[in-house]
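Standup notes
- HV: blocked on the assembly model, inputs below
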Amino acid sequence: LAKTTQPISMDSYEGQEVNITCSHNNIATNDYITWYQQFPSQGPRFIIQGYKTKVTNEVASLFIPADRKSSTLSLPRVSLSDTAVYYCLVGPPVDSSYKLIFGSGTRLLVRP
Amino acid sequence: GAVVSQHPSWVICKSGTSVKIECRSLDFQATTMFWYRQFPKQSLMLMATSNEGSKATYEQGVEKDKFLINHASLTLSTLTVTSAHPEDSSFYICSVRTSARGNEQFFGPGTRLTVL
């Protein structure tokens, strides 16, 4: 599985756009990039998944450059409730034997 | 997303006792279930992968006799922490996956185990 590298922590203020970048230099052809959000004492929650270029949903956008060696999760206009740990995972979801292996994640703190 | 439940949500037990944690997939039959453990301020660590009707596959360093996993049906998996000790105190999270949903993985709310 491709190893991922993310910043350990980030600080932001309410209303700002937050961009969290993840490096995955060894990403394979069949790998997708998936981001999860985890609040304290809760299980992770799926945010967004993409393969290339840009993906947007009601929660976030995911930007993936052509070489796919990195990706950026963009959270528009964050609020205090976006304070959480964000995990970037890379792997082949179509593979039934695929296991989600979590890295250290990025601890986002949104301040008033 | 799919609904995954865990029971209990928290449990406190004495050292030496065994604790069973249930994970249920409420709205689809899970092809595979996973168990994770998470210590405070740390990431999730995969403990084992469980397929219905077969023995669980444990990750390196996880004692299979310590953490018994039973996947009796397509909607229920149980994790039993045997002879629990304080160092087993952790947040245990299950997740489920189904090929019917493109192998998307859904997580339960977690179970907080405290061993005194």
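- HV (later): unblocked. Chain B touches chain A at residues 1, 4, 31-32, 34, 36, 43-46, 49, 91, 93, 95, 99, 102-110, 112 (CB under 8 Å). The radius of gyration of chain B is 13 Å.
- Next: hand off to the docking folks.
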